[in-house]
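name: query_chain
kind: protein
chains: 1
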Amino acid sequence: MPLPVFQVDAFAGGPFSGNPAAIVQVPEWPDIRIMQSIAAEMNQTTTAFLRQQHDRFALRWFTPTIEEEICGHATLAAAWLVFDRIDPERRDVAFDTRAGPLTVRRLDDGRLEIDFPARPTEPVTSHPDLLAALGGPPPVEVRAARDYLVVYDRPDIVRGLRPDFGRLARTDRHATIVTAPGDDGFDCVSRFFAPGHGISEDHATGAAHASIAPYWTEQLGKSSIAAFQASARGGFFHCTMRQPRVSFAGACRLFLEGRIET
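structure:
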């Protein structure tokens, strides 16, 4: 049975920026092996499967190698599909997910804003391989929630890191976020590495900003920040703390649409 598929760039600043997500519409959940195979074939950081039942929607997310517990950019991309193609009259949509309900609303300026559980970090002793794998000068501090949050004092350090991904994959957290104060009008910059889950470097990561936003809003004494993910494609976020949750607003752009033959 052919399945509609869309590739949407989330948290984009223009063409060929942000994080591409594949969104596959399914009438029922396929076998998990089929979903994992489709995600591997699509070869994006995340492929989301969107299921509609009457006026409710459900999402599941897969990297090329695993099913994810939660994903921000692919949820934003799925919301674009709902708003643009499925129900253009809607102003908000709630998705049923393994992580609980995730709500996205359409802002007046056309950006989409996702409500997400915050992941505040605490100072930790890092895995022995972490800093050696990242390279670069010593950080200001190392913190963690689900992921490591490694804080540097200058944005050029974050941009210049060339990690040893094989060594980084052997550390003891799901992923590693590196961050520093921002430049060019942004409050902070970051990058995100998850080589142990098939993603050497992600382009624009909503879940990473669940830890970035609590840290920098506290450091800067602000409730909202403009954040830039300094990947090769670039990711653009407006983050607002609403404890115990955080919202991320960003733009989405359609790149392609087609169908999958299974």
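note: Residues 72-86 form the longest helix (15 residues).
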